[in-house]
Specification:
With 534 residues, the protein is of the alpha/beta class. It has 3 domains: 1-91 and 193-256, P-loop containing nucleotide triphosphate hydrolases (Rossmann fold, 3-Layer(aba) Sandwich), CATH 3.40.50.300; 98-172, no CATH class; 261-346 and 449-534, Rossmann fold. The strands form 4 sheets. It has a 6-stranded mixed β-sheet with strand order 6-7-8-3-9-10, sandwiched between helices. Helix 4 (109-121) packs across helix 5 and helix 5 (125-138) packs across helix 7. The radius of gyration is 24 Å and the shape is globular. The two termini are 34 Å apart.
């Protein structure tokens, strides 16, 4: 069978520096090829170069794409922009990694999906809108009629990703380039999306080039795998053969990067909890349909009567799908979301008094999911890490503040010896894992008792994820920290948590120790989560 896509000698260079070095690969009709590697390996740049989407790059080699029956293959790398426009979205579609930057914030997601259908399929506005709702429904998006009217910022990360997938698939492409298509999705939704993509493949013979660092996804989904390191293709072959007998040291390193449990397993301390909640409820105002919406707002309850406690030196894992309420629970715990019920933080409660809340904020700090967006690009490392001291210890002299910053950076494994001029560097000068270490140092510098970790490793490669989890485990042992860990990754829960609560649609369905909940789940929903992650 002739390949649908045949890439030979693909090289990409920026400013005379080559970042992809003459790689070769093919994709057959209906085949699923996984391009695997860590950030910086060149896998995303290679895919973008095929469609002419890499600016200021010199791209050489060839990428022969079969144009259809009776038509000769065309070299994508030499096609004029007008011809590429006809191919993008129709013959070859792409799912981008970060939907928040790929979606237009000024249009509803329904309008954006409908636009593709109007341009590529020639549908009328009404036909395109109805087809857009069905496309959103096909990706498992709940209440697609309502979600189609939402803007990107009004959806969760997983919901935005499903909208992106709906846009990509609406043109019924022959080849789908999927750049980390399930990174923002929960384990059960990953399975649903992969099943959806597989069904579409079987229906229209669509091929897929999957760009990912998720080895579980590769093992379950791909037919063949190609491994990239530093711009070179170091190993390729059938998935079963690569996983059973990897030949290259880098491939073995990736396969051996599963999170490892290394936490203190002592009994629950008798001290008072660092945080305790009873009957916690968080709600949002929502627009009511029809004329009623002119006069009053409706209410959406995101967290319903939640109860939990976090003991000193222990980790409570909160696991659930997108929209389950786990991130809203974290915002309430940080005092950033109005709530009803009881929420005690070391004997105090969030309230309208800003000065009283300031004392609590020193006790509770947060590490966000995406370190790049949570660190100011205009501030140096010294300013970012030391910012909390300006608020909580304003009388500290500059020399003392700098000493504390250096110590906090040392605690997370960053030093002047590794990075000359470390304190005066900016976030863009660091890798994703290093930026996450900076975010942890910023949280640690005020000596908190509780860290709220909102998907702290989901944006990281598997090897970097393992390093960051190992760092957090060490910090917990050395400093007696408590963690509220928000994640959809069951492997991370197994490695980090002492206790677990499982959330769905705002309710806590199940709670207990990590062994009770994950090894002997009582709820069907929990069993589905665990099975999807295995």
């Amino acid at each position: 069978m002739k390949p649908l896509l045949e890439v030979r000698g693909l090289s990409v260079a920026f400013g005379g520096k080559e970042v992809v070095h003459g790689i070769d690969f093919t994709v057959a009709p209906g085949e699923k090829l996984a391009l695997v590697g860590e950030s910086g390996s060149g896998k995303t740049v290679s895919a973008l170069a095929l469609l002419g989407l890499v600016q200021n790059a010199v791209v050489t080699g060839s990428a022969m794409f079969a144009a259809g029956e009776g038509k000769p293959p065309r070299d994508l790398l030499t096609l004029p922009e007008r011809d590429l426009l006809a191919i993008r979205g129709r013959e070859i579609a792409m799912i981008f990694q970060e939907p928040m930057t790929a979606l237009n914030p000024l249009y509803t997601v329904g309008d954006q999906v409908a636009e593709v259908l109007q341009l590529k399929e020639g549908l009328s506005a009404k036909e395109a809108w109805n087809a857009a709702i069905e496309a959103l429904r096909a990706t498992g998006l709940p209440e697609p009629e309502r979600r189609a009217l939402a803007y990107p910022h009004q959806l969760s990360g997983g919901q935005r990703q499903r909208a992106m997938i709906a846009m990509a698939l609406s043109g019924r492409p022959r080849l789908l380039l999927a750049d980390e298509p399930t990174t923002a999705l929960d384990v059960t939704l990953r399975t649903q999306i992969l099943d959806l993509l597989s069904n579409i493949q079987q229906h229209n013979g669509m091929a897929m080039l999957l760009i990912t660092h998720d080895l579980n996804l590769v093992r379950k989904f791909a037919d063949r795998v190609a491994v990239m390191e530093n711009g070179y293709l170091v190993e390729h072959g059938p998935v079963a053969g690569i996983f059973a007998n990897p030949q290259h040291p880098y491939t073995r390193k990736l396969i051996d990067s599963r999170p490892v449990r290394d936490v203190v397993e002592e009994p629950v301390p008798t001290e008072a909890p660092v945080m305790q909640a009873r009957g916690l409820q968080v709600s949002y105002p929502i627009h009511r349909p029809g004329i009623k919406g002119w006069f009053s707002k409706g209410e959406f309850i995101a967290v319903k009567d939640a109860a939990f406690s976090i003991a000193p030196g222990r980790t409570l894992g909160v696991v659930g799908e997108s929209g389950s309420g786990k991130s809203t629970l974290a915002l309430a715990a940080l005092g950033l979301m109005p709530h009803r019920g009881e929420l005690d933080v070391v004997g105090s409660r969030w309230g309208p008094d800003a000065s009283r809340n300031k004392a609590i904020r020193r006790v509770v700090q947060v590490v966000f999911q995406d370190p790049f967006s949570s660190l100011s690009p205009r501030m140096t490392v010294e300013e970012i890490v030391g910012e909390g001291l300006l608020v909580h210890e304003p009388g500290l002299a500059p020399a003392g503040r700098r000493e504390r910053v250096i110590q906090a950076l040392h605690d997370v494994g960053l030093s002047e010896r590794q990075f000359p001029g470390l304190l005066q560097r900016y976030p863009h000068e660091f890798s994703g894992g290093q930026r996450q270490r900076l975010a942890i140092a910023r949280a640690l510098i005020v000596n908190p008792r509780l860290l709220i970790l909102d998907e702290p490793t989901s944006a990281l490669d598997v090897t970097i994820q393992k390093q960051v989890l190992k760092l957090l485990q060490r910090l917990q042992r050395e400093k007696g920290l408590s963690f509220l860990l928000i994640t959809h990754d069951v492997d991370v829960i197994r490695a980090m948590a002492h206790d677990v609560v499982v959330m769905k649609d705002g309710d806590i369905l199940e709670a207990g120790t990590v062994q009770q909940v994950l090894d002997e789940p009582q709820q069907e929903y929990t069993r589905t989560l665990v099975a999807a992650a295995s």
